[in-house]
Recover the amino acids of this structure.
């Protein structure tokens, strides 16, 4: 397989990338990627914590031209965050969110 961060080839059972050091727990599920530094940050209604990494983020455009990201806290509790365009596009570019297909 290839490193999700630097795209260099790494062993299938590797837990970290030998090229860039990226931690790989399970590349198939974003919620299990160890590095959440690039994740969108959101407020969790359930725990009341701010700036929590937003897992499984899906970005939609709102009627007034803004962006909203819906996802969860990694444990299945729903979270959402309002984004400006730059943040939304950056998150998609970083691979930590997907654009909703209308
Ligand atoms: Zn790498």
């Amino acid at each position: 397989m290839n490193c999700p961060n630097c795209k260099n080839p790494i062993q299938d059972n590797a837990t970290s990338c030998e090229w860039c050091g990226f931690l790989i727990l399970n590349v198939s599920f974003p919620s299990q990627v160890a590095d959440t530094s690039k994740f969108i940050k959101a407020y969790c209604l359930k725990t009341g914590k701010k700036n929590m990494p937003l897992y499984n983020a899906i970005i939609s455009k709102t009627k007034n031209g803004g962006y909203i990201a819906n996802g969860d806290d990694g444990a299945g509790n729903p979270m959402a965050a309002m984004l400006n365009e730059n943040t939304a596009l950056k998150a998609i570019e970083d691979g930590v969110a997907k654009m909703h297909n209308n």
Summary: The mean pLDDT is 86.
